[in-house]
Amino acid sequence: MDGNSLVNIPEVLLGSSGPRLPLLGMGTATSPLVGSDEIKTAILQAIELGYRHFDTATLYRTEEPLGEAIIEALSRGLIKSREELFITSKLWCSDAHSNLVIPALQKSLKALQLEYLDLYLIHWPVSSRPGIYEFPIKKEDFLPMDFKGVWAAMEECHKLGLTKSIGVSNFSCKKLSDLLAMAEVPPAINQVEINPLWQQKKQMEFCKANGIVLTAYAPLGGTIWGSNRVMENEVLKEIANAKKKSVAQICLRWAYEQGVCILVKSFHSERMKENLDIFNWTLSEEELKKISEIPQSRGSSGVDYISDKGPFKTLEELWDGEI
Question: Is 256 one of the annotated active-site residues of the chain?
């Protein structure tokens, strides 16, 4: 595929001097886990199609295949340099302790065979017993996070040049607000569930007001939680039929029009192509209004992060009432 036929994905600048973030990226979490070779092949296909933003995490166990795909993409000339890519990884709960943040990021860099990340995120606003990488986390292993200490260590990662920007994931507006009050370097990103059935209007307003970019995971609803409720929504199906687009494209275009960054996850090349085809058409006012009226509920409830023995005993506490 020659360079001219690549899709140009719009970008935003993170902070005043941060990296450029492509507003459509590829997620690499798989459930159940997929073999390394399959992941590496999919990432290479994605790079060939024009994807430049890849999202991984210690928990996903996809850092190694992503690193190998990057090396192969360079050697095949699919990209000229590592700088063309935007790579995100995440700090797992068991490493969310002030003394473990830098070693955890160094371990991720080693797995990815990279010298720096473009973005490093705190995966969830809770810590767990060090040294254990498992999901779900045992109820007795949850610990309250020392937000000040952990964030100071994230800032140190940034100062050391191990990551070009730092952020969080699954933080409520209240937890973001508390973090902003103590942060020297504010979080560049909050990565949360966003789709037409969980539109996060409060988060959108809060992040816009505070210069934080929102990134949407599960923009199609995500079948990890055993439900296809977004893809089967009648309102979305109706709009898709009228526009001769897929429901997935309607969801992605909707999120893009909200000004959020979107992470898509498909290892099928046809779907990868389809997911890129969202930039040269728009949703009408009437279609946007219909989507805005869809009844709202979370797909990813966060139930795996609450525990009688942990800092969040209820979903209400985990999300600070944003449910």
Answer: no
